[in-house]
Amino acid sequence: MAAELAGAIIAGARFPKTLQWMLSYLWRKPELDHCATSGGWTDLPSDLLGRILQLLELPDALAVAAVCTSWCSAAVAAGVPHVRTPWLISWQLRRHIYQSVEFRNLLTTHKTYKVSLPDGRPQLDWCGASHGWLAASDEFSNLVLYHPFTFNTIRLPPITDLECVKGVYNTEGSIVGYRFRKNHQHEPSEPGTWFYQKVVLSRDPSQGGDYTAMIIHYDANLVSFARAKEGCWRLAAALADGSDDHYADCVYHDGRFYTVTLRGVLEAWDLRGPQEPIKEVIIANGDRRRRRVLTRFLVSMPCGRLLHIRTLRRIHRPREIKVQVLEVNVEERKLVSLSSSTAFQDHAVFVGLNQSACLPTKKFPELKPNCVYFTPPRLVHHDNFGLPGWRGVGIYNLENQKFEYVFSSFGPNYAKSWPTEIWYIPGI
Length: 428
Hints:
Layout: H1 2-10, H2 16-28, H3 34-37, H4 46-55, H5 58-65, H6 69-77, E1 87-94, E2 97-105, E3 108-114, E4 125-130, E5 133-137, E6 143-146, E7 153-155, E8 165-169, E9 175-180, E10 196-201, E11 212-217, E12 222-227, E13 234-238, E14 247-253, E15 256-261, E16 266-270, E17 278-283, E18 293-300, E19 306-313, E20 321-329, E21 334-337, E22 347-351, E23 357-360, E24 371-374, E25 392-397, E26 402-408, E27 421-424
Parallel strand pairs: 22-24
Antiparallel strand pairs: 1-2, 1-27, 2-3, 4-5, 5-6, 6-7, 8-9, 10-11, 11-12, 12-13, 14-15, 15-16, 16-17, 18-19, 19-20, 20-21, 22-23, 24-25, 25-26
C-alpha cells in the first residue's frame, strides 16, 4: 500500500479516505510503532517520502508522520511539526467571506501550512476552539464542529433554536434569511460573521457520551447552551436591555461552566441533568475597573485552580497594556492576587477566541513559562479601537510585564471588526 500511495500522490491524485482512516486510527493508538506491525511501510525510500510530504496538505502530512517512527523521522526532516504542539490558525476576509485558512506553528513561525475547508464548503466563519475541535458557522449561520486533523465534523443545533432568532422561509420551506427581534432581515450567511463570540465544550465529543456546548452570542449579550443528547439550544442568561456590560469569556471548570463580563461579574452554571440551569453568583458587583479593562479571560488550571486574567490600560501610560492574573476563590466568592513569578506554576496559557488552554512547559519545552499567548481580541468599546499597544499576536511575560510579538496581524484595523486569528490546541 505504501508504494501505491506514493505513486498516486506524485501523479497528483489523493487518497483522502485512506489518509483519514490512517490518522483517525493512529490518533487513538499513538503508542504503537506501525512500521513494526505492518509489512511494507519501511520500503519507501526516505527521499521519495520527503517529496510526498512536501506535496501534502497539513492534515495529510501529519497522518503520514503518524504511521511509524521511520516515517515520523522523515516528516521531521521535511519540516512537518509535531501534531501535539499549539497552532495558530489565521484567515483573510475577501468579498465579505473568510477564506485562505492557514496554519502556523510556534516552532516555525515563518512557515504556513494549507488546510482545506471540510466537505468543500464555500464559507466557514471561525468562532471558537475547544477540546481539540474548531467551531465555525456555515453558510446558513449554523454552528459546526470540525476536527482539522481527523476531518470529522459535528453539527450543533440550528440557529433558529435560539429565542432571539426568527427564520424567514420561502414557499418551499427553505431558509432565505433571519430576523433578530424586530430588526431587518439578514441574508442566511450574514449572522455567522458577527453573531457568535465564543464556543466552549465541556469535553471532547469524540470520546463518546453526552457533552454540552456553551456559546456567548448576539453582541456578547446572551449565553446559551446545548446538550448533545437534547439537540437544541436553551437560553442560560441575558444581560438587561440597555446594559453597557457584555459577556467577555466562558470556560468549563470542575464540572461547571463559568462566565465573566467586562465589568467583572462572575457566575457559575451547573448544566448537568435535565433541570433548568442552576446559577451561582461568585462575584456579584465586578471589580470596578471597567473603564480601563480591555478584555477578561477565565483559565482552568490542571491543578484545579480557576484563574481570572484581565488586560487593562496602564494608569500613567494609557497607550500601553498591563496583564493581571488573579485566582478565583469560589468558596469565599472573591479574587486573590497572585505573584507574577508563580501564577502559572511553569505553565503557558493560550487565550483568545479559543477556550483558554494551559500547557506545562516541561511537556512542551518550546513554550515559555509564566507567559500568556494572546491572539488579538475583539475590543467592544470604541475608545480602544486601534490601540497601538496591541498590534498583533503576541506573548506577554508576567515577570517583566512586556509583550513579544511573534506573528503580525492580518490587518491594522482588526479591533474594528473581528479577530482573524485563533489558537488551536490539539487534544492532549
